[in-house]
């Protein structure tokens, strides 16, 4: 390690939101006392809402990257409902909500308008939950990708339809209990072999940029937003946002659970350009999937009355496959 | 802008009217907890706090913070056995923070830069006699001066420093470092009378018109044991050996030296013998290595320098350059028992390092004082049975280290101060401990400890140059930044970042954060994601 | 400029002169020729600045227009039939948000059975979507209604649908006075949005509104359409002044002043109806015709004024409200509330069935003679439907009617 690197070590510089010793250029956007707060206080998200957190992270970073000139288009869903019940809105940037399934197309329309008007300085972010993105909005999203519309589309993935009361979506993981995949019968919870990876599908469109992130990796997330905003065309960011209500976790555990999803290998964090994976965030402290599953009530049936070791092992195999497939296991540190 | 369509289109940020704080059943609070390093420090240093300053490269502030508790950082950074590092929470992540090394860096930096501490301009007009200029005496003198009192030190030896000078070898504590730190204390207006032995405390107090006395004469008499020996046996004690190193010429020990004992002084004696030309220096100890009182570091360094260790052995006889050694075994209680097996060992000199006693002859005329097992009994405030006469350091019951002595000096000074004012000193309530399980260590970057460079071996066995080198600035800074700031906010902004309700306000550098209870829903994310465990949830009433 | 051209092309050229900034295109017959021509105009650079976006569905087409319009761009698309239905959710959204999008609907039947030919089932199904609906009687009017549609939309902050009969108009070649750029520019000012997504003046558009204000929001939507009742004739008059020809407006009465029988209709069938009216007038029959151009808002007063003096009203509809019958008729009856006159509903021309003069003569003669049922299906093959009904009565599961009928039609040949 060179002397310069040693001096640059700041205890938490790489992982925490900020650090009193870092220069402004090295601080996260979220540590800025003058951050945009695209989503401000008074919103009606549940306590510890991962989506509220993720949306502010993303949009503040996008605004920073675009000099404040960002228009957001929002699909129907929790994020929309908790942020804009008449007569109050929590947004502080120009924001448009149209429908559940059309946010990518609406965003493409905004982008087209801006292009026609020569306002290329103003950038567009489309956003929705997993239902609005992987299911009902999927056609519009695929169209937006395929055309290369100049939109950064962000999916805040909490792995089910939370706004309507926690029903299964195409992003619900196997074995998870939802209101429509109940923890009863032969194979309780969501079925194995179903569900899709929208990041991989996005990559298949060979768009300029696809990335995944979680609310547990603020700096990683912000770096990806900045990277995406530095490009033109259709870009996709998939952010894992734990939902205390739907996952049955403590409100204080939102970030921890996201971290465990990442560290178990169940949620691979990577970047891809033009269809090729270009970078992965290596697992720093690997944990067995059980450590991720156990705190979540949606998986309680895997542990009670006695542990379903076969099902847990099956989920572990998914994690192992992700780790092998994306190369998530960090090189053993040289002692 | 035209009138906005009713209800469908809203003015931005209008949700501020919705005070979501009403949802809360618990609220977060910022707290201070006692870091394990601080808790473990015999000198009562606020280590976390001085590291906090050092992290930013503000070494002077760091040093000044350190100096509030300990006037000898450069000495301490060399000779302290750093229980702080043993207690350090970072041990459970990778390795302890190199607190001792940073302390030494700060101490050396202060000497290099000539930083000094000034006593208050206004004197209390109270005068305190300090007997002995070892670490306890110097520390007491320093703290008393800081509190505005006049201080006179009587020192029996020719030079000040006590065991720091006459017991700790130069290769561990260069004398220019010791002198610099003592001089800085003296420069605060402390009167030092060397070569002044106090034989009668009440008389000395009376004679000088002192309002209080602090006794810190240390434990400078080497403990002897009876070894049957012939006329030609050369036996001396370690205290005498190490003390004589400050004299005119080095003592003659011969080619082979046996050191009898298992403490740090035994290691010092053996290593000194190596440097004085002994080709074979053997430490003879009656128990096993893991039961040696010597610190691991000292043992390791001794072994590196070629010192041999002989376990489970007692010296039965010495004569004509040969020792008879009896093998011992440990009984089930761990006590060594003779085996009746003997062996021979060459030794031109036997150095006894079997512990030290205090010279308490000065206590005559103080019948109220209780002496038990060779040490003076004192109350919590270090006052003896005689009002106004306090005692500390090696002459009272405690672990005998420089750091403990420095802590005694501080403690005594505070109680003496209270005594002089006719009040009593009540130390502030301590914060709850900052236990490891309260930390969120995820946020600490992986950063194993820096190793302090060591003098090359060839020079270690031939010279008294300092063995352990200091850290350069960048490495010291790195070490300081490894501190996890257990139990105390270090402004990492995590709480500000992770609040989904933007209910935390950043007040600016050094000012911390405020929680906006109008909007805080009490989710607890800020507490859960606080790396240093300096927040907690408390129920709403 | 007068030219021999296809209806779709005339519309496309006129739309281009309206300087749309964003066009969303998705193919569906019989609307395709319009967006094809616009594609050419944009790609060639004749229309610029304009973003022409080939979207993946009609739902996306309308959604894209919503985004573009909210961002302050003049937005246009065209569709028909199933396409219109596929974008229904977005239609309501566009009007609810008050976005002045203009869309051409090349009217076509709705399946099943799938049918690509003309009737008004598609647009009629969206009569309550909050859009203004203007029906063109010929290709000249189809073209002319577009500049008017943009002006109305932007003045009122409401989306406007211009309905023109599929194939009958869209694919018909005829002499059309295509508006000129200079004229359109004089008639249609640049778009100044009532609300716009702008980082300099941010707003949140599309809030969730609960019971406390939803009724008021809907009332205001209705009130805006009522304002359109005043705006539509005014804009039509402006159009006449600039372009020198009459077009649009709320209603277009033909020989109604002394008419005892008035035939009400929308769209291209009015041409045939007026020809029959002329011929019957030649025979001395006091008959007239009322074309309704603005179906939404529905001009109750104007309709009542024209029809109030007649003895009999025949509403000829190219759509069917299954289970009740007429759609336009119901609206006409509302206009005639309290006036006692004989009203008959005729369902005609469904799925592209030709409405011939001969049939209309027969129909109107029957009406005047009092031989019409309250609900009549013009040129219905009664034998065929009776056989199927009989079959259905016999066998509970008699199979799909459409296939049974096709089989019958085949066996008849």
* Largest sheet entry of chain A: 8 strands, mixed
Structural class of chain B: alpha/beta
Q: Can you tell me the CATH superfamily of chain A?
A: Thiamin diphosphate (ThDP)-binding fold, Pyr/PP domains
CATH domain fold name of the largest domain in chain B: FAD/NAD(P)-binding domain
| First-residue to last-residue Cα separation of chain A | 12 Å
Rg calc of chain B: 28 Å
Q: Briefly note the structural class of the backbone of chain A.
A: alpha/beta
- The CATH architecture of the largest domain in chain B would be 3-Layer(bba) Sandwich
Q: How many alpha or pi helices of chain A?
A: 12
Pfam families (chain A): TPP_enzyme_C (PF02775)
InterPro entries (chain A): PorB-like, THDP-binding, TPP_enzyme_TPP-bd
GO molecular function (chain A): magnesium ion binding; oxidoreductase activity; thiamine pyrophosphate binding
Domain Thiamine pyrophosphate enzyme TPP-binding (chain A): 76-239
Overall description:
The complex is a heterotrimer of chains A (335), B (541) and C (413). Chain A has one domain: Rossmann fold (3-Layer(aba) Sandwich). Chain A is globular, with a radius of gyration of 20 Å. In chain A, helix 8 (218-229) links the parallel strand 5 and strand 6 (235-240). Chain A has 335 residues and is α/β, with parallel strands linked by helices. An eight-stranded mixed beta sheet of chain A has the order 2-1-3-4-6-5-7-8, sandwiched between helices. Chain A is 34% helix and 13% strand. Chain B is an alpha/beta fold and 541 residues long. The mean pLDDT of chain B is 93. In chain B, strand 17 and strand 18 form a beta hairpin. Chain B has a five-stranded parallel beta sheet, with helices on both faces. Chain B has a five-stranded parallel beta sheet with strand order 8-15-9-10-11. Chain B has a three-stranded antiparallel beta sheet with strand order 12-13-14, with no helix packed on it. The two termini of chain B are 47 Å apart. Chain B has 18 helices and 22 strands. The longest helix of chain B has 20 residues, at 402-421. Chain C has helices at 7-17, 32-43, 58-70, 81-86, 88-96, 121-124, 139-156, 181-187, 214-243, 269-282, 300-307, 328-335, 357-368, 382-394, 401-412; strands spanning 2-6, 22-25, 51-54, 75-79, 102-107, 132-135, 160-165, 173-177, 203-205, 251-254, 261-265, 287-292, 294-296, 312-317, 342-347, 375-377. In chain C, the strands form three sheets. In chain C, strands 3-2-4-5-7-6-13 form a seven-stranded mixed beta sheet, sandwiched between helices. A six-stranded mixed beta sheet of chain C has the order 10-12-11-14-15-16, with helices on both faces. Chain C has a two-stranded antiparallel sheet with strand order 1-8. In chain C, strand 6, helix 7 (139-156) and strand 7 form a beta-alpha-beta unit. Chains in contact: A-B, A-C, B-C. Chains A and B meet through helix 1, helix 2 and helix 10 of A and helix 16, helix 17 and helix 18 of B. Strand 2 of chain A pairs parallel with strand 9 of chain C, so a sheet runs across the interface. Chain B: GO terms for molecular function: iron-sulfur cluster binding; metal ion binding; oxidoreductase activity.
